[in-house]
Amino acid sequence: MRLRLAAIAGAALAAAVTALAVAPNATADDLVTHHEFQANCTVDHTAPDDPIVFPGQPGASHDHTFIGNTGVDAHTTLESLQQGETTCLVPADRSAYWFPTLFRGDEPITTDWHLVVYYKSGIEDYTAVEPFPPGLRFVAGDMMATPQEFEDAPGQVEGYECGESFHNYTIPAHCTSWLNIRYQAPSCWDGVNLDSADHKGHMAYPVGGSCPSTHPVAVPMIEFKIHWPVEGDMTGVRLASGGGESWHYDFFNAWEPETLAAMVEHCINGGLQCDSRGFDLYKPDRGAVLDEDYELIR
Asked: From CA 128, how far away is CA 114, in angstroms rounded?
């Protein structure tokens, strides 16, 4: 089952982030056009909780869809995540990922398919990216954004997509196929704080391909790629947080540190286009990080 799911996930590999110049006599293995790996996780539940923004306050948030660590609620902590289970293919990824639930009217829209979270380099020097520290958490995006602010946001990739329709900055009125969105998180950390008052200030987006001096530590650039099985007339389709421009998401790192470090080193620092096992289909000679059970190869 896991191998079949991995094959499905592999079909969702992203386009290149950066193409680097190489010497004229470079071999195919020297060509570096990717620096990423995937986390593939299914939906666990929906709930009006947010342990980052409203810790210890059940029901205080708009409704969220939770993937990854199971049973996440308003009382979730790093310790509870580390002791929990996960819906991700990799058992060592006990991180929590959540985003506003999509509704059609009063009915939540979810999917049984694995959703993709890419871990990429957000800076030009992909060899300098370091693993997230345990417990790092943040919110990406702004639920109060206007459509124009959402369009101009540094994390916005192509807006909402459905069929051949791209660059929609609110939910389209009609979709010919499933609705998708991709959004990138800031990837520069201040190196000190695991959180901040607004859950954003300890993180920053790169500037000119490098991390600013205020946030000097390059960590993986998270990119949520979320799809929903909703199409046709989109009347009444909305996010729990409001219109499509209110898109945002939360991340709470609880990876087993040795496994995350190995994935970052092999895939991101190594300039590979890895799946959830840390395997690059196009460079099979480079090997994998995880075995067929998604456990760290030692």
From this structure: 29
Answering whether pTM is above 0.85, one says yes
3-state helix vs strand vs coil in the chain, percent to 5: 15, 30, 55
DSSP state of 74: T
CA distance 223 to 175: 23
Task: Tell me the C-alpha distance between 282 and 193, whole Å.
Answer: 38
Strands 96-100 and 188-189: unpaired
**Polymer length in residues for the chain:** 298
Q: Distance of CA 120 to CAs 191, 194, 220, Å? A: 19, 20, 5
Selection from 214, 221, 260, 270 nearest residue 88 by Cα: 260
* H helix intervals, the chain: 2-10, 78-82, 147-152, 257-263
Question: Per-residue confidence of the chain (298 residues) as pLDDT tens digits?
Answer: 333 334 334 433 333 333 333 333 444 455 677 899 999 999 999 999 999 999 999 999 999 999 999 989 999 999 999 999 999 999 999 999 999 999 999 999 999 999 999 999 999 999 999 999 999 999 999 999 999 999 999 999 999 999 889 999 999 999 999 999 999 999 999 999 999 999 999 999 999 999 999 999 999 999 999 999 999 999 999 999 999 999 999 999 999 999 999 999 999 999 999 999 999 999 999 999 999 999 999 9
User: Could you give the CA distance from residue 298 to residue 291 in angstroms, rounded to a whole number?
Assistant: 10
Residue 86 to residues 69, 244, 248, 250, 254, Cα–Cα distance (Å): 4, 28, 22, 16, 10
CA–CA separation, 252 and 232 (whole Å): 34
